[in-house]
Every structure is written in C-alpha cells, then in structure tokens.
DNA sequence: GGCTGACTAAACAGCT
DNA sequence: CAGCTGTTTAGTCAGC
C-alpha cells in the first residue's frame, strides 16, 4: 500500500479534500488528478494525437462554415426586413450546439472496426479506400458548391419573404433547412474524415500536424500523396465516368438541394459540374455503395432500406422525403438527439482509444520481436508505430486540448445485439460522470457472460467493468481451477482481465480487500501457502435477493428498457453490418479462455438467474445494460428505461486516473500467467 | 427522508 | 522498517 499506491492515495485524498464534495466529487477529483499528472498522459500516443489533430482541423473547418452560415443569416436579418418575431426564436442559433455535439467525432464504429481488424490492406481494400477518399473529395466539392447555393437560396427566400410580407412559417422552414444542411455538412465532414483517418491509419496518407486546416477545402485537407493519386488513377481508370449526369443543385427547393448534395456521401457520386473547381476528377462513387443507392437517388447516411438509421429510431419512411420530414421532426435539435450524438461520439472515441492502444501494443510486440517497421504491417504506420512509444508523451502534450470534453471516454465494448447474449451495448458508451452503481449478478447481468463477450475489450480498453467488486472477485475465484485464490492472485486476475485495473492500484486493491472482508460470501481459508479466498455461493446469492425476484415492476422496467435500447443497438449494429465490418465479438476473438467463461456463465445462470425467471432466459439483449440518453448527467441504472445508462458507464476518474502510468502500473502488478 | 448497497478513502494491526 | 494482508470505520452517492 505504500508503493506507488501510497502516494497516489494521499494525493488523491488531498485533492478531494481540497476541492470537491458532493456529486462532483469524482469529476473534480478527476480533473485535479489530470491536471496534476499532466506530464504523463497515458493512453494517447502519437497516433491518437495525430487523429486529434485531424479532428481539430475538421472542427475548424466546420466552425468556419458554421460561422459563415450564421453570419449570413444575421446579415440577412439585420439588413433585410426586420422581423423580430422570427428572430425571437432563431433556430439557427441552435445549430452550433448540435454541431458542437457532433463535430469532434469523425470515426464511425464501422470504420474503426475496419481499422482494428485490418492492419493490412488488400489491393481490393486499397481500391475501396481510394475510391472512397476520392468520392469524399468530390462530395466536399459538391458540398462547397451547395453551400454557396444554400446561401443564395437563403437570400432568395428571405427576399421573397420580405416582399411577400411576414410569413411566419417560412423562416422556421429556412432555419430548419439550414439545420438540415449543417447536418449534412457534418456528415460529409465526418465521412471524409473517416476515410482520411482510414487512409492515414493504413499509412497511405500522412497528415502533418502543422498542416493548416482549410475550411471547406477538402482537396487541401484530403490532399493525398502523389503516389496515391497515381494509384487512384489506376483504380479509377477501369471505371469510366459515365455517371456524370449532372446535378440538380440549381433547384430552388432547398430540401431537394440538400438531399442531392448530401446524397453522394455514400452513393454514386454525381459530379457537379460547378463543383469541380479544382479540376479534380470527374469520378463516381465506390462500386460497393452504388448498388443499393442506384434505386435510391436520395440517399442519406441516416437513411437506408426505407428505415431511418438514426440510432434507436428505425422508423419506417416510405420515401426519402418522408424520411427528411421524419428526420427534421423526430431528430431535431433537442436533448435526446444531442445525447444520442454524444453516445456516438463516445463510441467513436473509445474505438479510437482502443485503436491507439492496440497500435501501441503492436509496436511493443514488434519491438520485442525486433521486427522493423518495414514489415507490411508496420509500414502503414510510419508515424504512429515507430514513434508511438517514445513520442506518446510529447504527442499528447502537443495537443492537450485533444478530446477535451471527454477525456475519459468511458465506453463499452461493442457486442452485437443479434449475436447471442451480449451484455454490453453500444448505447452504453456514453456515460460521463460519477457513477456508483455497478452491475452485479443479482441484477441479471451474468458477469462472466459479459466478461466472456467482451473480454478483449476489457483487456485492452481502460474501461471500468460495470460490475461490483464483489462480483468481480467472485468471478476471479470461480474462474480459478480450485475455486480459490490468494489475494495476490485476485489482484492479478483483475489486472489481467481488465486494463482498467492496471492503474489506480491502491484504490481498487483497497476496494478488493475491503470487499473481501466486508462480504460474508468471501471466505478466507488458511492454506499451505497462506490464506486463500473462496466464495460462498449461498451467501453470495443471498445478497439482495429481493432485488429482482418477484418484483414485477423491476421486471417490467427491464423489459421496457430493453425495448428502449434495442433499437439503438440495432441501428448501430445495422450500420456496422452495412459495411460488412466484422464485429468485435467473441466470435471473432476466438479466445481460448472463453470456454471457461462460458461454463461459468452457465453456472451463474443456474444460480443467480433463477431469480429472474424468464426475463433473461433467452439471449436477448435485454440483459444488456441499458442506458438512456441524457444530455447532461447520465446515471447508470440499467433497470430504468428513463435513465438507463448502461453498465459501462464509468466513474469519471476511470480514465482520469492520477499518476497514471499504464506501463509502470502494469509492471508493478505482475500478472500471474499460470492462472489458467 | 430513511434504508441499503456500493464505492472510496483511510486508519490500524498483524505478519513477513 | 517497508510492504503486504486483513479489518474496520467513515463519508458519499444512488436506488428503492
């Protein structure tokens, strides 16, 4: 306790005493800690910093666009006919909020999955990437063009309004369209950035940190190396640009215009003759996407197969117009939407973090094996791989503002709803703030199932497992061959199974000891080699037995929360499936330890799940920790559909940990490798 | 508002 | 004496 943890504990304590109390305790503590340990930014490596930089560039670009729009509107309203009524509620003023919500996030789960799963690009993948990249460039060109038209359109409409007298309905419509346009802009930016990142991750694209962000200058931002251009030409030479069918961008219908301009983001790209300002290729879209969109000239990232793809929505929209109406009506700028954006943001952020960590691991592995980065796998990461270890600190320091709003990125593993008893859902990835409650088996969350499903995630992502210490300790003991562990072995299990527990050792070890002593279910047994801890299942099951069993309201809540969250998950899953991205599941992990875990699941199910009867008997995601979307303060209560926050909601300190030095802490906690 | 569970922090004692 | 282990207490938060 006096080792690294000793100082930790003391400094933490002082931080708490000095600054915080109440519900903000942990947050403040976290910030204090972070401020204090600023010198040793843990997870961030050069790659992450780079990523952040790219994101910042995108953000800046977006900011400029946003400001332009706002200025335009303000100018129009100041110089034009005064319509104070309309100004009273200026929807456009809300735009920045939603924009701010969404901007920092640029990588979709699909993209990150792809990156995670594919370190090396096949030629086909390279082609696809190139195509996508090129398409995105064009899309942004189009967007640029459309942006101008949008402004003209706005002016036109305002003039019409001025001449026709005050027509209260029109202004909101314009504003709505403006908002829609900004959303489209966002999506475009995100898409482009996804592909940029993808290319960058694959080493195909190098973005220098100092590269200026040029607002709405996609070709500058997405400038690709000459060889990439060459590759691209080779790739695209096979396709004649016969789809250059022109565009309808001159339409006065803003909605239509918006649609047609945004549509290319994923569809066969219609080359806008006005957009090719740089003379950059008249190319079309990637093949793989053109298929489904040919029949849907109006395609939208949030629309597909007649269904709204907004996370958690899945509303059926007969046509694109109805979808747009639906989008503007149901997914307007409100708390729910912004919160959902946050969910998506954190999904992305966690994936980014995970990617960064995996890269770091890869680098460490390569270093260990004396493999130079000239290998195919290493080559794509000239910057990140080679420098990630040594430069991680400086890189993170170089961009201290990176991801400022969610430094902790508490997230959850991605487990497909459709694949068995996944426990953790993507919707649970957004919790920010002090969360005290954890899942225990008594809450119908089979911990072993969750761990099994998301083992790799927990191992790599510094995410606090959503289970109580007691549950985790029990799991550790039950996983052991003899169903008993020494304290140190329990420690080792924690550190081995959860990246989160590779730091803050003093805190959680103290908690472990505390729990071992506190709970009757943990029995200390004197052994030859000292004391070992075992689990008294009877005692364990006794814990709060009234929680679930025979409580219809709870059961109902669980069901409703299930119903609430499932669409969200499904939507996210669907979006992932859309790109045929392999999911981060046990199926793709193939971890040999899963067998043990699976058996533990069965054991556990036979025990704890008896209390719940049929509710969780199937593999439905209902067991998944649910999280409601709350814009400001989200709480973790899986059983409450209103504020279900998901199991992975983390205490903010999780990733703010003080003195976090991942490697050091981990070394301090040697893993007992003979555990299994 | 009280009860309870969970978490965190801390103090303390015993042992190695 | 340092460090680990184990126990206990206290404060806080959140759900019921």
TrEMBL record:
Residues 404-418 have a biased composition (Low complexity). Residues 271-281, 390-403, 611-622 have a biased composition (Polar residues). Residues 286-298 have a biased composition (Basic and acidic residues). One of its GO terms (cellular component) is nucleus. It is found in: Nucleus. Residues 1-23, 271-298, 390-422, 610-676 are annotated as: Disordered. The keyword Zinc applies. One of its GO terms (molecular function) is zinc ion binding. Residues 464-537 bind DNA. Residues 464-537 form the Fork-head domain. Residues 666-676 have a biased composition (Acidic residues). This is Forkhead box protein P1 isoform X5. The lineage of its organism: Eukaryota, Metazoa, Chordata, Craniata, Vertebrata. The gene is FOXP1.
